């Protein structure tokens, strides 16, 4: 059930679910949790609790990802788990049985989106699987359809199955849908992920080389259907060909950085350099993957004449709120290049015209603009395929290296 609640109402809710029995402590070890959707298609995820330097930390577990969450507050029977970014948190009470009962809260433009969640201690699996002969390892051409419109989205599924356990992702124009983990149980495929902002549950029936009757449940209410055909040659449009720009139009901008200082592309530090302009947001997991890569790339290439600057489009236009979110993001990935706050919300339909009229449209986050030494747009890369995509991630990194090396020689 989705609710928008004020802080006082939330405290009332937590006090009600707490009860009066003496609770057990928030215990170390594996946990199985789920977000409770009103339609009953709950989104399952796993995390692990440990002690570190005298305090509790969590690792959100999705396939090969272990996302560290080190802001955990415990007061009596109340537990507050603040995600490192995304303006997202889990608030719960420890029940007399030693489990968790509470809510997932995500800060949207002006309100908090609140979804009930439960977590059960000592459970190390997502789903238990029945025996079956189906195997989904391979590449799949998938078409997703909105249940509320005629809109369709093409994605490429890539899965790896060992026994009944499945890991993988869907690649799309934005990069990918993060680390997915699940099972094949009989003839049914189930996959899910939760990282504080992405909350997905996929299901489908396996019929030979087809996946049919597919359902995607996202967050508290979103729902799409999908089908897929196994196709080793399935591929997406070239990510360097998706975003267009206006030829001959000077490329420039000026925005405030995290400390409130105005930064302009016309400054001497950018002159005669190869410059990568990263269009991003602290709410965006694919931006997180790209930032982790670009932070290391910058440390390696800055001395060779490369500059990087991030342009953040946050959920609101409030500078202080954007500043706090972006600073946490910057610190987590040890970003040394400037990150600027555009002051235009990601949901603004005029975001391109208000900030970067030199390009036709900001299609996806992240988008990376490659400027040559003359300050001209050489290439634009749309989206970013994270490490959950395996070989695609490695190939994409090599494309970035090859592109920048070529521009440095030019």
Low-confidence stretches: 1-9, 15-20
Helix/strand-derived category reads: alpha+beta
Strand content: 35-45%
Radius of gyration: 22 Å
Total individual domains: 3
Per CATH, the superfamily of the largest domain is Glutaredoxin
How many angstroms does the end-to-end distance come to? 56 Å
Number of strands: 26
List the helices and strands and how they pair.
Elements (H helix, E strand, L loop, with lengths): L2 E2 L2 H12 L10 E7 L7 E10 L2 E8 L2 E5 L1 E5 L2 E5 L5 E7 L5 E8 L4 E10 L16 E9 L5 E11 L2 E8 L2 E2 L3 E6 L2 E7 L4 E9 L2 E9 L3 E9 L23 E4 L4 E3 L9 E7 L4 H17 L4 E7 L6 H14 L6 E3 L9 H5 L11 E5 L5 E6 L8 H19 L1
Parallel strand pairs: 22-23, 23-24
Antiparallel strand pairs: 1-10, 2-3, 2-10, 3-4, 4-5, 6-7, 7-8, 8-9, 9-10, 11-12, 11-19, 12-13, 13-14, 13-15, 15-16, 16-17, 17-18, 18-19, 20-21, 20-24, 22-25, 25-26
């Amino acid at each position: 059930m989705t609710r928008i609640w004020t802080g006082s109402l939330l405290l009332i809710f937590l006090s009600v679910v707490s009860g009066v029995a003496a609770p057990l402590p928030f215990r170390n070890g594996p946990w199985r949790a789920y977000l409770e959707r009103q339609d009953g298609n709950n989104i399952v995820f796993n995390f692990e609790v440990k002690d570190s330097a005298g305090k509790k930390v969590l690792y959100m577990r999705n396939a090969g990802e272990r996302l560290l969450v080190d802001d955990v507050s415990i007061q009596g029977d109340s537990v507050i788990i603040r995600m490192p970014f995304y303006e997202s948190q889990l608030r719960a009470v420890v029940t007399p049985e030693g489990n968790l009962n509470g809510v997932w809260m995500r800060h949207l433009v002006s309100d908090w989106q609140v979804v009930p969640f439960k977590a059960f201690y000592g459970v190390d699996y997502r789903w238990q699987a029945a025996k079956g002969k189906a195997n989904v390892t391979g590449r799949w051409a998938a078409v997703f359809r909105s249940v509320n419109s005629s809109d369709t989205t093409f994605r490429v599924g890539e899965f790896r199955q060992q026994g009944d356990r499945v890991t993988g992702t869907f690649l799309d124009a934005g990069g990918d849908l993060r680390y997915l983990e699940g099972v094949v149980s009989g003839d049914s495929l189930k996959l899910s992920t939760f990282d504080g902002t992405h909350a997905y549950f996929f299901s489908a029936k396996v019929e030979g080389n087809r996946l049919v009757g597919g359902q995607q449940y996202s967050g508290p209410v979103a729902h799409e259907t999908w089908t897929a055909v196994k196709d080793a040659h399935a591929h997406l449009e070239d990510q360097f060909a998706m975003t267009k720009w206006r030829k001959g139009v000077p490329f420039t901008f000026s925005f405030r950085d995290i400390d409130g200082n105005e930064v302009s592309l016309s400054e001497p530090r950018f002159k005669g350099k190869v410059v990568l302009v990263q269009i991003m947001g602290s709410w965006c997991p694919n931006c997180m993957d790209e930032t982790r890569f670009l932070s290391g790339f910058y440390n390696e290439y800055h001395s060779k004449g490369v500059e990087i600057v991030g342009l953040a489009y946050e959920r609101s236009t409030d500078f202080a709120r954007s500043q706090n979110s972006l600073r946490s993001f910057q610190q987590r990935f040890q970003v040394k290049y400037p990150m600027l706050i555009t002051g235009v919300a990601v949901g603004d339909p005029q975001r391109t015209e208000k900030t970067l009229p030199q390009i036709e449209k900001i299609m996806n986050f992240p988008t990376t603009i490659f400027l040559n030494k003359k300050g001209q747009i050489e290439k634009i890369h749309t989206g970013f395929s994270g490490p959950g995509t395996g070989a695609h991630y490695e190939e994409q990194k090599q494309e970035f290296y090859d592109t920048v090396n070529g521009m440095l020689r030019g």
